Amino acid sequence: GDLLALVRRGEGPKKLPGEADFDPTKTAIAPAYSGAWLACLSIAESEGQAGLVALYRRAAGGPGQDVRTTPAQALEAAFRAELGTGVAAFTRRWRGYLRDLAAGRTTGGG
User: What is the pLDDT of residue 52?
Assistant: First the structure.
């Protein structure tokens, strides 16, 4: 509810939650947790649980990932490989998903 109240007031997030958004010394963290959860939910609705897990695993890296790869680069590569879209395009879709939820509309799969 906290995040959707912000969206209803036109103060919703412009980007996916990042590390700083989860630091309670810098900001209220409840909207970041809600936003991250709803991003995951939208992916699970459109790609299934297996798709969400595959995205997570690819983004988290692991053996064989270039150690020079930044977290942002790994996330972009994971989105492209697993969802067929980049982070920016997904973020636009997620923001629409949030607007639909805030307006009480069903999302129809994210």
Answer: 97
